[in-house]
Predict the 3D structure of the following.
Amino acid sequence: MTLAEQFAKRDAHLPKPKWVYGDRVFAKYLDFPLVGMVVRQNEHGVLIHSDLPLVLEQETRYVVYCNPKTVKKLVVLQD
């Protein structure tokens, strides 16, 4: 049995996440819009690494948990 099969068997009872590592998304964090990359999704929300820093009350954040309802796939316009 390979590792992939072992992990699939171990996680068979878990729901499949909508967002996976590397997905480019648009989201809102405390009513602030942000664009970034999904790190992971779990029961707390979607962990996103923001492209630009978020400065809130003299604290700089790059990685934040967002509500899954505010996360949308980033649409890239081609020339």
Q: What stands out?
A: Residues 24 and 48 are 9 Å apart (CA to CA).
